[in-house]
Write a structure and sequence with these properties.
It is a single chain. By secondary structure, this protein is of the alpha/beta class. The chain folds into 2 domains: 147 residues, Alpha-Beta Complex (Aspartate Aminotransferase, domain 1), CATH 3.90.1150; 247 residues, 3-Layer(aba) Sandwich (Aspartate Aminotransferase, domain 2). Helices cover 38% and strands 17% of the residues. The chain has a 7-stranded mixed sheet, with helices on both faces. The protein has a 4-stranded mixed sheet with strand order 1-2-3-13. A hairpin with a 4-residue loop joins strand 2 and strand 3. Helix 4 runs parallel beside helix 11 and helix 12 runs parallel beside helix 14. The chain is globular, with a radius of gyration of 21 Å. The chain binds pyridoxal-5'-phosphate.
Length: 399
């Protein structure tokens, strides 16, 4: 069997730093993926929201091919003709005046951390090496040593110390704790407007507004990590827009390139971005013409195909339908837009494995939550199909 053979090879030669569902995907299109045996599945993970535009979107594929035949990498030692237009288009779309492109999400988070610290020292006047950054419990911001250092997930840290100092952790959604954690040395508060990896945790209404106000009063930067929550996932371009706040900086990645190529970015005000001078920070691949051409088209697809609007329209209906499922194991169905967590009173992995047998891929998060996050190109008909499959699995496992 092809599947078992490929899994055996991967297990033999590859590092075992993941525990994937045992299917081997060979191709994909839109909401659908196909494994090496020819089985088809609906993808309800969408690569953690990196393929909001759907798999192998034909327009993005065309842009990638076109650019790949021209020039792919110049390094930032020279300029290229795609970077300026990417910067302009992303800034105009998001309303931020400045952008710094990187590749992976973690790199863009690191960029935000560096910007916040340097802004703290050079603009706010914090003494050298004294800047503090406040983060939330159960955060997920990536996997570098600095970032896992302020994670509260023991496994993410175990064995990887010593860690970067200068971070303070408060409970997620707790404005009073944020206020109490502020000191004259606070450079920034970095937060996911909805916590994805923690299980699609939506903070209490008003938290982001309060947090923005507290940051302003203490002259600390309010920075949102929208790598997973942004670019249409919650039914708005950014999840912070649900509370009408304006952060000082925002971090984007994942769907920025529609799943074709890693592209991430840190967006901020003129004042914050002005801390970076030539030589302060960089990346060989950051801002490369291939990535920029792909991201430009991925953003155009997001806007022109009204994917954010589709999430806003179908999300609440989908959540309502899920809430109608009667099962003793379901504690809560929560989410925003097409980003849903089914919280169980038991382990979610067996449900994900059964859903796979029904032709539906999703991944448990935090042991007991089934995360549903399909590509935003999904139709109501496809969501109905998914609902039937989910109902079937709950009937089977509950019975
Ligand atoms: C995925 C993710 C990251 C890290 O992005 P990578 O591309 O995996 O480095 C950071 N923050 C959030 C909220 C994410 O979901």
């Amino acid at each position: 069997m092809k599947t078992q053979k490929l899994i055996a090879i991967e297990d033999q030669y590859g590092a075992h730093n993941y525990h994937p569902l045992d299917l081997v995907i060979a191709r994909a299109e839109g909401v659908w993926v196909e494994d090496v045996e020819g089985n088809r599945y609906m993808d309800f993970l969408a690569a953690y929201s990196a393929v909001n535009q759907g798999h192998c979107h034909p327009r993005i594929l065309k842009a990638l091919k076109k650019q790949a035949a021209k020039v792919t990498l110049t390094s930032r030692a020279f300029r290229n003709d795609q970077l300026p237009l990417f910067c302009q288009e992303l800034c105009e779309l998001t309303g931020f005046p400045k952008v710094l492109p990187m590749n992976s999400g973690a790199e863009a988070v690191e960029t935000a951390l560096k910007a916040a610290r340097k802004w703290g020292e050079k603009v706010k006047g914090i003494a050298r090496d004294q800047a503090e950054i406040i983060v939330c419990a159960d955060n997920f911001h990536g996997r570098t040593t600095t970032i896992v250092g302020f994670s509260t997930e023991e496994q993410y840290k175990d064995g990887f110390g010593p860690f970067t100092p200068g971070f303070k952790v408060i409970p997620y959604g707790d404005a009073a704790a944020l206020e109490a954690a502020m000191t004259p040395n606070t450079a920034a508060f970095i937060v996911e407007p909805i916590q994805g990896e923690a299980g699609i945790k939506v903070p209490a209404e008003g938290f982001l507004k309060q947090a923005a106000g507290i940051c302003k009063r203490h002259r600390a930067l309010f920075i949102c990590d929208e790598i997973q929550s942004g670019l249409g996932r919650t039914g708005k371009l950014f999840a912070y827009q649900w509370e009408g706040v304006q952060p000082d900086g925002v971090i984007v990645g994942k769907a920025l390139s529609g799943g074709f190529y890693p592209v991430s970015a840190f967006l901020s005000s003129e004042e914050v971005m002005a801390v970076f001078h030539p030589g302060d920070h960089g990346s060989t691949f950051g801002g490369n013409p291939l990535g920029m051409a792909v991201a430009r088209e991925a953003l155009r697809v997001l806007v022109e195909e009204k994917l954010t609007e589709n999430s806003a329209k179908l999300g609440p209906w989908f959540i309502e339908e899920l809430q109608k499922i009667k099962s003793p194991s379901i504690v809560q169905v929560r989410g925003r837009g097409l980003w849903v967590g089914i919280v169980l009173d038991r382990k979610a992995r067996p449900y994900c494995e059964e859903l796979m047998k029904e032709g539906m891929l999703c991944k448990e998060t935090h042991e007991t939550v089934i995360r549903l996050a399909p590509p935003l190109v999904i139709t109501k008909k496809e969501l109905r199909m998914a609902l039937r499959r989910i109902e079937k699995v709950f009937k089977r496992l509950d019975g």
